[in-house]
Amino acid sequence: MKIVLTGGGSGGHFYPLIAVARSIFKIAEVERVAKVEIILVSNDPMDKTLLDKEGIKFIKIPAGKIRRYFSLKNISDGIKTLSGVISSFFILYKIMPDVIFGKGGYPAFPVLFAAKIFKIPVIIHETDSIPGVVNSWSGKWAKKIAVSFLETTKFFDAKKVIVTGNPVRSQIVGGNLSEALLHFKLEEGVPTILVLGGSQGSAKINETILDVLSELVLTYQIIHQTGEKNFSDVKGRSNVILEKQPLKHRYHPFAFLNEGDLKNAGRVASLAVSRSGGSIFEIAMWGIPSILIPLPNAGRNHQRENAYNYAAKGACEVVEETNLKPHILLSQINKILNDKEKIQKMSGAAKSFSRPDAADAIAREVLKLGIHD
Fold it and tell me: Same domain, yes or no, for 47 and 61?
């Protein structure tokens, strides 16, 4: 069975695709469903080494951003998108996959457009509370639609929708506390704050953390994923800020946290400070309280909707970026971590929201669609 995966090049699309691919391989082998070949068709492999390790082939296509507003960039991006559609026609004609799994994002559009013409069965997944442009379009004709939030079902044909949650890599869940403390060189008994800004990092969150860093290390220790492009700046500034601080060893900045790092960080963290994209579902799997800061210019304001839907479950506090002042963030951190009952309730709500079986559930739908169609 040939399966094509497609989706945007950000971590929010890439890593769920990896999680589903792993489940497909596992289920196909254990249940002897079929011999499976998986190909990712997108504009950016995100992590080519990981794809090679997982046995997933990669085919690159051009893809331009799809905007709903006027911009001169629409011309060049329109040309890229057209080139991507033409490339996708040739690629799908040559591969002729049994099924296509799309995660949304503009790089998925050329592949899904070609799939529609060729009548190849398609299943899509929507991470966010409000569907993106590509998933809104493809959801009108896709065979199956998997969603992360129950609130998303109203945007699609209910007969085709399944609420699966968002696929999370099992490799980032679990871990051993002693190993985590050793791995990050942490002090036992000191609460740990995990700061995440998405796979690219967040300049705004980084800035705010630096503004309160000298106060944070007095009570907490911090594991901070800064993003590759921000790391040198954050590292340099933190060295200056903490130069005369005897507790400077409590701050641990990283450009990027790989699967092993995240597994340990999620195990040892007392609280997460994060954007509210796909990282919500990782935080929920770790079962820890969180402070979510929605990306204000995210498409269709989906991060804000994600954050408030998650907050409605009792699992997080939301701080809008316009209100993200150093003293407010510090106050929220203290408010949560100084209240044991609140920590317990938020952790319980996070665990209740998590869907550990999401990747397997989607993988079974993909295999079912590939076999029966």
Answer: yes
- Tens digits of per-residue pLDDT, 304-352? 999 999 999 999 999 999 999 999 999 999 999 999 999 999 999 999 9
Residues 274 and 320 in one domain: yes
Joined together, the tokens standing for residue 98 give 């049994």
The DSSP secondary structure of 2-67, one letter per residue, reads EEEEE--SSHHHHHHHHHHHHHHHHHHHHTT----EEEEEES--S-HHHHHHHT-EEEE-------
Q: Domain range spanning residue 59?
A: 2-168+356-372
- Best CA proximity match to 317, nearest among 302, 330, 327, 307: 307
Overall number of domains in the chain: 2
pTM here is: 0.93
* Backbone φ, ψ for residue 272 (5° rounding): -115, 140
Q: Is 166 left (phi over 0), alpha (psi -120 to 50) or beta?
A: beta
Residue 195 DSSP SS3? strand
Listed as own residue / partner, the contacts of 331-337 with beta carbons closer than 8 Å and 24 or more positions apart are: 332/291, 333/193, 333/216, 333/220, 333/271, 333/273, 333/291, 334/219, 336/271, 336/289, 336/291, 337/191, 337/220, 337/270, 337/271
State the pLDDT at residue 293.
97
Are 312 and 296 members of one domain?
A: yes
Q: How far is Cα 206 from Cα 184, in angstroms, rounded to an integer?
A: 19
Q: How far apart are CA 90 and CA 84, in angstroms?
A: 10
Whether residue 193 sits in one domain with residue 104:
no
> Domain check: are 180 and 108 in the same one?
no
Give the whole-angstrom CA distance, residue 177 versus residue 139.
Answer: 42
Output the six-digit token pair for 145. 């639609």
